[in-house]
From TrEMBL:
Belongs to the synaptotagmin family. One of its GO terms (biological process) is negative regulation of secretion by cell. It is found in: Cytoplasmic vesicle membrane; Endomembrane system. Residues 15-94 are annotated as: Disordered. It holds the Pfam family C2. The lineage of its organism: Eukaryota, Metazoa, Chordata, Craniata, Vertebrata. Residues 57-68 have a biased composition (Polar residues). Residues 100-221, 234-367 form the C2 domain. Coiled coil: none annotated. The keyword Transcription regulation does not apply. Residues 20-30, 39-48, 72-81 have a biased composition (Basic and acidic residues). This is Synaptotagmin-4. Residues 84-93 have a biased composition (Low complexity).
Length: 372
């Protein structure tokens, strides 16, 4: 056995996977310094384990491990997978898991005798963990029949599970079969939180157009997707008129208009109304609210409220406006809010300063609503 320049060849080196692996960069270095008359080790003829095949065709070359997919790697011997490649495939799979929110399984049918629409929420599989400490969730499901939002139901909460089996049946009476095609089912998958607002895992939206239920029960499953994000860049605007009467210590508030209100949910337009709260030294002392305006992003209220001020000036007074979406049978969602007072900034602060400087004058301004 001849000795290569700068490289010692020993029997154990021939079977070494660390020095002569398929991805070893020393291969090119060894070949470049090898004399013509020395023993030629054809490194390209070895398999992924670093061993020489008994009979190797002259045209055979080492496989390009850079082009192998993770599937090919799993079919190979475990020793042929480098730690770097194993790490990359693991990180990819974890990213894919983060994007997946699970699958919802349910069934639909129509009872012609009772003229009732029947929905059975069977189970959900592969939900993400919303509690980072226990790495689990307490899931439940809210279901609404759109577009009218009259029929709303929710399942029980199942504790500490990512694969909840609900198997709950909900029957909706008074829905003619001819109207089924015009309806849409909205499933909201949530995780119960005892100490704060429940976490929204995702949603499933099922338009029933083209669904044929005359032949019996239909089993369905759908991937859970992220909750629909409001497309509007802002949360709308509110036109408010204020007038301070220093002689009577009263504050007249007129809620005039709202415009560019975003969608409150996937059903379409919101049903907005405005709650007005009066605060003295950060304590609420009075509250009012407007009427609900149906299905509009641009509501006209024109409603006047008069508040008695318990002090001689407005330094400790602030007034809060909450624009909400009226929702029968559940908690009304806040679309946006606005606070006017001496500590307010921007147009809200300017508006408050003007009514203090010019009492008995009715002053109206548009204000941007903040995130609800």
């Amino acid at each position: 056995v001849h000795v290569l320049k700068g490289v010692d060849i020993y029997p154990e080196n021939l079977n070494s996977k660390k020095k002569f692996g398929a991805d070893d960069k020393s291969e090119t270095k060894t070949k470049s310094v090898m004399p013509k008359n020395s023993l030629h080790l054809d490194l390209e003829k070895r398999d992924l384990n670093g061993n020489f095949p008994k009979t190797a065709p002259k045209t055979q070359s080492s496989p390009d491990t850079g082009n192998l997919s993770p599937k090919h790697f799993t079919e190979r011997n475990k020793d042929s997978v480098s730690p770097e490649s194993l790490k990359s495939t693991t990180s990819l799979s974890s990213e894919e898991k983060q994007d997946k929110l699970g699958t919802l399984f349910f069934s639909l049918e129509y009872n012609f005798e009772k003229k009732a629409f029947v929905v059975n929420i069977k189970e959900a599989r592969g939900l993400p963990a919303m509690d980072e400490q226990s790495m689990t969730s307490d899931p439940y499901i809210k279901m609404t029949i759109l577009p009218e939002k009259k029929h709303k139901v929710k399942t029980r909460v199942l504790r500490k599970t990512l694969d909840p089996a609900f198997d709950e049946t909900f029957t909706f009476y008074g829905i003619p079969y001819s109207q089924i095609q015009d309806l849409t089912l909205h499933f909201m998958i949530l995780s119960f939180d005892r100490f704060s607002r429940d976490d929204v895992i995702g949603e499933v939206l099922i338009p029933l157009a083209g669904t044929e239920l005359s032949e019996g029960r239909m089993l369905m499953d759908r991937e859970i997707i992220k909750r629909n994000v409001r497309k509007s860049s802002g949360h709308g605007e509110l036109l408010i008129s204020l007038c301070y009467q220093s002689t009577t210590n009263t504050l007249t508030v007129v809620v005039l208009k709202a415009r560019h209100l975003p969608k409150s949910d996937v059903s379409g337009l919101s049903d907005p109304y405005v709650k007005v709260n009066l605060y003295h030294a950060k304590k609420r002392i009075s509250k009012k609210k407007t009427h609900v305006k149906k299905c509009t992003p641009n509501a006209v209220f024109n409603e006047l409220f008069v508040f008695d001020i318990p002090c001689e000036d407005l330094d400790d007074i602030s007034i809060e406006f909450l624009v909400l979406d009226s929702d029968r049978g559940s908690r009304n969602e806040v679309i946006g809010w606005l606070t006017l007072g001496s500590s307010a900034e921007g147009t809200a602060g300017e508006h408050w300063k003007e009514i203090c400087e010019y009492p008995r004058r009715q002053i109206a301004k548009w204000h941007m609503l903040c995130d609800g």
